[in-house]
Amino acid sequence: MDASSSPPLTAQSTAVELAGITKRFPGVVANHDIHLSVRKGTVHALVGENGAGKSTLMKILYGMQKPDEGTIAVDGEQVSFSSPADAITRGIGMVHQHFMLADNLTVLENVVLGSEKLYGIGGGARKKIKEISDRYGLNVRPDVLVESLGVAERQRVEILKVLFRGARTLILDEPTAVLVPQEVDALFDNLRELKSEGLAVIFISHKLGEVLSVADEITVIRRGTTVGTAVPAETTPRQLAEMMVGSELPTPETAESTVTDKPVIEVEGLTAYAEGGASLGELAEPTGAGLVTEAKAETAAAVRRVLDDVTFTIHAGEVMGIAGVEGNGQTELIDALIGLKHADAGSVSFLGEEITGWPTRKRREQGIGYIPEDRHRHGLLLESPLWENRILGHVTERPNAKGFWLDIKGAQEDTRRIVEEYDVRTPGIDVTAASLSGGNQQKLIVGREMSHKPRFLIAAHPTRGVDVGAQAAIWDQIREARREGLAVLLISADLDELIGLSDTLRVIYNGRLVADADPATVTPEELGSAMTGAASGHLEHVAESAAPEDEAR
């Protein structure tokens, strides 16, 4: 598994070549003497632990940062980029993990935005979009609003957008992070079409099984430098992971059930309407004991329910996983449980006490932990130091507080403990959260929440963007806390994670819990089918609840 096993590279066959790339930041060497050669007509995977230097390297290739040392060559010619515009001009395109699309614009408008000079904004642009879409099997609809698209469709729009600008080398950052198995298969078909046309794809992912299935070559980065190149046919996910971490990985233990009969969180009939939508109660006539007229019932039926009569119980020592394509009510459910928003109907009880009206702070103080799905919006203050981020959500609790006073020294000392215990790669606790890689930001959040020994943990995508070593460590932390009686609601786009960690597994679709699955027997493919609304053999489907108009009448 080294570079000598790869086909020889020539100036004619090489799409991009980075040689001796070094990039330093205050207190950190992000990249040191990195070498990367990507051939035309191939998918070249780039893997490494969080903080290994992958993101910095790709920012350099895309012109977002300049290297301190080293050279970049495109099509055999040495280049120097001062901005992404320079990289785009030389045929380098990047699809970021967090999509850069305007929801209130159509697909065509998003694709053309900033590139109007290429093909105009009318017929010429439409013709080019159709040509690219057909050529690479992207199946993009130019006239629909982006806000109406699913995650997989948005990703195809992003790919089309960079192809529209003439990209011949595509950088894809964690492209399968939020896709179900069927969508991953479709994406890989798209990538095969791209490489069959001679394009090069740089594929960044922590999902090593997917890397091995789609890549032609794999470059491994560890601690900021390249440690070798692997050929997929000659390696396994475990061998690849050990190259990444530099040591053997422990063999996972078989987990025994820890589920008790003590309810911790009880949710009953939780219902919420889309932002701005009226509830049935609000539509009722002021007279007639709250009767709803037929006309108003039809209006209510048209109001979309983002949560539809959601009911479940999680017991001490139980992990309940919820599988679903993003946008099917997971965010609204999390918001209702942590108190960021209140549902239109239903109740939430915690340890036998109804908490439906409690504010977020009280829920946190009473023992509800929260790993948010969007770590930048709800988990961190990006421009604040790590020790201040350790305080977030726990400002009244030890070691962050002594009585009514903030205990800065205590918070700083505990931040150092979290950094060491959770292997947060950082030069110190005084650097900003923004200076950490996404995976290290996530490890800091997980360490913060687990440090307060919660009774109930809302874990939304707890290992998204985290490398295999850190993923295993986070799983172990959750399992250990579960053995001590922690109840967990686990929401994840990683179906292997859901199946491997959950004691009970539910499927959410259009705001409704539609099926139960046995983690011991269900496959990712069956789970993926249920998530898209299709029936599956090993899943027990929940009875359909009454339609809104039936309830109204």
From TrEMBL:
Residues 16-248, 291-535 form the ABC transporter domain. Residues 533-553 are annotated as: Disordered. It holds the Pfam family ABC_tran. One of its GO terms (molecular function) is ATP binding. PROSITE patterns: ABC_TRANSPORTER_1, ABC_TRANSPORTER_2. Keywords: ATP-binding, Nucleotide-binding, Repeat, Transport. The keyword Nucleus does not apply. SMART domains: AAA. This is ABC transporter ATP-binding protein. It comes from Streptomyces kaempferi.
